[in-house]
Design goal:
By secondary structure, the protein is of the alpha/beta class. The protein contains 13 helices and 12 strands. It has a 7-stranded mixed beta sheet with strand order 3-2-1-4-6-5-12, with helices on both faces. A 5-stranded mixed beta sheet has the order 9-8-7-10-11, sandwiched between helices. The radius of gyration is 21 Å and the shape is globular.
């Protein structure tokens, strides 16, 4: 069998994770932490490009990995225009949107840019896989009740799609034939209805709807939120922080660490127990709503993300939703593996690479 050596790049706000794979086997993995001093010298994320690229190349050199041996480079997909899921070749139209921050500034925008620059010098292809803007919603799921505010698809597409494929494999069904509810539970929580290879409904995990999470408020009473916005007590940025960053567990318990909350519960903290169970309760309700989106035909419910390591937490969800279907648990995010798997499917000709449209045409 032909060996494909793939470099994957996942830039975060204060770190850059890289991995080198020979087919599915990881031969090198590294997380480079960046100090606030290093990051804060740049006014815009795009300006970090040269710094991050040089750090990556230096680490590969230190590990004695010859980049000339690479078959492809894959970067984390950024805040692009809405596109369907899949593995995309990095092209000029994509690079333009990443550099201009079309949908906002985020460190993940650097993934495709750095991958493209490294690949160009080696005369190989660069890819991204399942960015957060994957949009496969059925039309009925876009209707919110306020015409000016349609529902949007912004979710943990990379991990959700990878876990959906894993669950389908465990069920001995192709992903294109499976009907699954995938629940990503990390700093944000997104719950998607996967029908025959497409995510036909999902809550907006950025600053939209759904259950509250360790850092996000999720769906809140709309009228009361409007009153808070116009109370004169808060600036816009303060309200946004209540919804994203300082919402959820942070607001109630002053921590976004699920393990810390579990320790609080073990020590008899009744408030922590109530809030943690409420988060599981809201997740369960959202899973129930996605079972309706799938018309009750659900092959399995998959729980993933960092919170899926907590057995007590997943048990709390399972007891409420196991009547819908079997509950499968895949802890962690495994983003490097997911990027590699998407690239490998293209290199092995199991899938065709997708083309990012030139929206200016």
């Amino acid at each position: 069998m032909e060996i494909h050596r793939i470099l994957v790049i996942n830039p975060g706000s204060t770190s850059t994770k890289i991995g080198v794979f020979d087919n599915e086997e990881v031969i090198f993995e590294k997380t480079m932490r960046h100090s606030h001093e290093e990051i804060n010298q740049y006014n815009h994320i795009i300006e970090q490009y040269d710094f991050r690229k040089s750090v990556i190349l230096k680490e590969l050199d230190n590990a004695e990995i010859n980049i000339q041996s690479l078959s492809a480079v894959c970067g984390r997909g950024g805040l692009l225009r809405p596109i369907e899921g899949g593995t995309y070749e990095v092209n000029e139209a994509m690079l333009e949107d990443l550099k201009n921050g079309y949908n906002g500034e985020h460190a993940s925008n650097l993934g495709g840019i750095i991958a493209s620059e490294i690949a160009k010098g080696l005369n190989i292809d660069a890819y991204i896989v399942d960015p957060v803007v994957v949009d496969e919603l059925q039309d009925i799921a876009r209707v919110s009740g306020v015409p000016e505010i349609p529902r949007k698809s912004i979710f943990h597409a990379l991990n959700q799609k990878a876990v959906a494929r894993r669950a389908s494999e465990d069920l001995r069904k192709p992903y294109s034939k499976s009907r699954l509810i995938v629940t990503h539970m990390g700093g944000g929580i997104t719950i998607g209805a996967h029908a025959e290879g497409r995510v036909i409904d999902v809550n907006n995990g950025l600053h939209g709807d759904g259950p509250f999470s360790p850092e996000r408020a999720g769906t809140v009473p709309a009228g009361d939120l409007v009153s808070m916005c116009f109370s004169g007590r808060y600036y816009r940025d303060e309200i946004m922080k209540k919804l994203v960053g300082q919402g959820g567990l942070m607001a109630y318990l002053d921590t976004n660490d699920g393990l810390e909350v579990e320790k609080m519960i073990e020590h008899g903290d009744k408030k922590a127990k109530l809030v943690y169970e409420a988060m599981a309760y809201q997740i369960s309700k959202e899973i129930g709503s996605m079972s309706a989106a799938l018309e009750g035909r659900v092959d399995a419910i998959a729980l993933t993300g960092g919170l899926a390591y907590g057995k007590g937490f997943t048990d709390e969800i399972s007891k409420r939703v196991s009547w819908i279907s079997d509950v499968l648990i895949y802890p962690g995010e495994n983003e490097l593996e997911a990027l590699n798997e998407g690239t490998l499917r293209v290199l092995n000709r199991e899938e065709l690479p997708k083309h990012y449209p030139n929206f200016a045409e």
